[in-house]
Amino acid sequence: MPLGTLDRTPPPFFKQGPSALSKLMVCSALALFLMVADTRFRITQPVRAAMATVLFPVQWVAMRPVLAVRGAQDYFVTLNTAITNEEAARRKLVVQSQRAAQVEQLTSENAQLRKLLGLRERLNTPAAPAEVLYDAADPYSRKVIIDRGLAQGVEAGSPVIDESGILGQVTRVHPLISEVTLLTDTDQAIPVLNTRTGARGITYGDAGRHGSGGLELRYMAANADVQPGDLLTTSGVDGVYPPGIPVARVTKVERRPDAAFARIVCAPAALVDGARHVMVLNSMLAQMPPRPAPEDAAPALKRPARK
Fold first, then answer.
1. Is the pLDDT of residue 299 over 50?
2. How far apart are alpha carbons 216 and 267 in whole angstroms?
C-alpha cells in the first residue's frame, strides 16, 4: 500500500466531547465559584463534616503506628531525662549530706571549744590548747597522742582536760607530740572530793575488770555516805590536778556484809572515747614558787689564840 493512501486523521474517539481547554476553564470557574460560595455562605460545611465523620475511623487506624512510634520515642526520652535527673539529684543529695555532716561537726566542735574555754576561764590556770591525733597502739592501756610537745612547752605530768572534766595526764613528751594516759587506765589514780558530802577519796582506772572506760572509788568504808549520782571533783591535794575539776560521777554502789570496803563504780565526766580538742594545764607543782635556799650556817666564832 502506498504511503499516500494512509489516513492520518485522529480516530473518532478523541473528537467526541468538549476540548481540554474548555474543560479546564469550566473546572476553574466551578472551583472559583465553590470557593467564593463556601467563604460567603459555607455551603460545603455539612459535606465536609460528613466526610470527616466517615473518614475518622480510617484516619484513626492510619495514625496508630505514627502515634505508637512517637509514644515510644517520648518514653525513651522521658526515661533518659528521668535517669539523668535522678543521678543529678543523688549527687546533690550526697553533697548536701556531706555539707550537713560538716556543719554538724563544726557546730559540735564549736560547742566543745566554748565549753572548754569556759572551763579554762573558771580554773585561772595557765593552759595550752591541743588536738587529739590518734589513740596509742598499745591495746593494754588507755592512751592518746596529742599534737603538742616539748617545742610547745608541754611537760610530763601536766593534767589534760576536755570541756567536761579531767581527761588524763601527760606521761611521755616528745619534741612535737605527747602521750596522754587517760584517767580510765589502770595505772592512773586521782585524789577526788565528793561535792555532796565533802569526803575525800581516790579513783582508780578500771578499764579491764568491770567494763571499758570506767573508774572505781576504792578504799571507802562500807558504811560511807556515797550514793549513785554523786559528783567527784579533783581535791588538789596531790599537787598535780587543780581543785574543783569534775572527774567522775558515781553510778553504782555495792556494800557487802563480809567486806570492809564498798565497791563504788564511777563513770568519767570527760568524753574519754571521743575527745578531740583538749587543754593541757600546767601542773600545780610547776606553779608553786621555788623553795628558798637554806641560809648558810653562821661561821663559828673564832677562839682567841693562846698567848
1. no
2. 8
